């Protein structure tokens, strides 16, 4: 018997015949979705204690942001949740805009909502693909990546990158959408429901899938709240909490959608919630296409990257017009108010919060990221305890974690 | 909204494994349709305009040199601080700045495209070239000559349209002309310049109160 990994935990000694031993799962395990290590204390195949270890992908993003201006900090958020970078970008921009009181034109709000929901579809498709692959359904994996590829191509057409978008900017977006992009997106939305049916045909009533998911990894509503779960993990337990609905940002207050709620709080309920969210995301994108208003894509007081010519009278007068703000941002002469703000947005994984402390300069004094994956990993110990090792794999997949966001 | 659980299957479905047969039927149908896999090295991918790939300095056809004026805006805006410019003043040409060297550390670059957006003379560009990985790190530290060579190699590609090349980050789509410095007011189609935007068919009905 090896040295126990977790002496500090009070692990009950089992009564049965089984041998108690320690196991380190990961960080190179394919089912841990990145570089997560889980220290397990096992009795046979039953988990007595489970301690996730994070930090293998730590890059010091919060610290890096302190030496970047608000405009430059945007690129760091690409590397948080690299599966849904667009949602992170939008969350960062919304937070900075509230901190600096910058207005966003309506067209930019609609475009941002559209791309954030496209990002949600990307993320949920990748979640479904890998989650199904962990449990053993290979076909769904390939089918989901087929549709995700269409969206990545669309993103490339829009902003020139497939994963690290940096597409929104503080006070708007960087590029306007084109008619070609909109028609391609419309074509995707037209075929998407039939593709959803394919996934559901493959796994929804499949008996292997049901055996692995129904009743496994149960979390009641109170437990989920106590563990700090957000997103589909919380809604799968029947708690109606969605920031898009309850504290609308961007154009979410102007579009019509529903928040799917589960009942049992098991893996199957979370799976059904996310599948329903895919439908709702497609619905939001459709409404954004239909309601897309004309107008500018960058607000008048946006600190922008494109600078006017040096002799511009607007800068000479010191007015906070377009372009003038950037010089302030770059040259450390921000007239911004000192203070702090916490702004949460709903990203595919859950509630992503940015907490800024501003000392009035053009750089944040402190940026803290409340990343849903980190908190979900923390909840894993409570959820997996008493289950089987195979169910831990299903639980990791169901919690939908991304280590880039967790370790930051 | 409460999610819908699928109904329980009956005893017939349990015996004959209907749901597994349905899944098998779906995959069997895929067997006879066209494959969607792109055979990458043999089949070239279509790279979109404005793809943020390998760096290049635009070679001016008139002078044969870069158009960079050494304003240092790209250095100031670069989030990963991978651009270095060395300049000197030239007293013969009205004391204007002349660049001696322009270096980019490609391994540090995050390909955000901020540099090409702030450049007032459209001198730097991220090209569509994406295959330039090397085994040695020093060969990815581009000097000015290498960056100009990158441009030559890019425009010599068959589909690059060397004359009318226009990067979407040189003149961002949808920005009003008045917000741009003069060299960035390049002639573009009306959809690009923001005069003729794509709008939704229902936008008038869904304007929020107070919006003009």
Summarize the structure.
Chain A has 408 residues and is of the alpha+beta class. Chain A has helices spanning 61-66, 74-78, 85-100, 106-135, 138-159, 179-203, 207-213, 221-227, 232-235, 243-246, 267-291, 313-316, 324-330, 372-384, 389-399, 403-407, and strands at 20-25, 37-43, 46-53, 168-169, 172-173, 339-347, 350-358, 364-370.
Strand content of chain B: 5-15%
Largest sheet of chain A: 3 strands, antiparallel
Work out the radius of gyration of chain B: 26 Å
Enter the CATH topology name of the domain at 55-169 in chain B.
Answer: Alpha-Beta Plaits
Biggest contact: A-B, 70 and 61 residues
Rg estimate of chain A, integer Å: 23 Å
Largest sheet data of chain B: 3 strands, antiparallel
- Can you count the helices of chain A? 16
Oligomer: heterodimer
The proportion of residues forming helix of chain B, as a percent range, comes to: 10-25%
Percentage of residues in DSSP E strands of chain A: 5-15%
Number of DSSP helices of chain B? 6
Q: What would you call the shape of chain A?
A: globular
Q: Which structural class fits the helix and strand makeup of chain B?
A: alpha+beta
Q: Are there runs of chain A of 5+ residues with pLDDT below 50, and where?
A: 306-334
Top-tier CATH class of the domain at 55-169 in chain B: Alpha Beta
- Tally of separate domains of chain A: 1
Q: Can you give the helix content of chain A as a percent range?
A: 40-55%
State the CATH class of chain A. Mainly Alpha
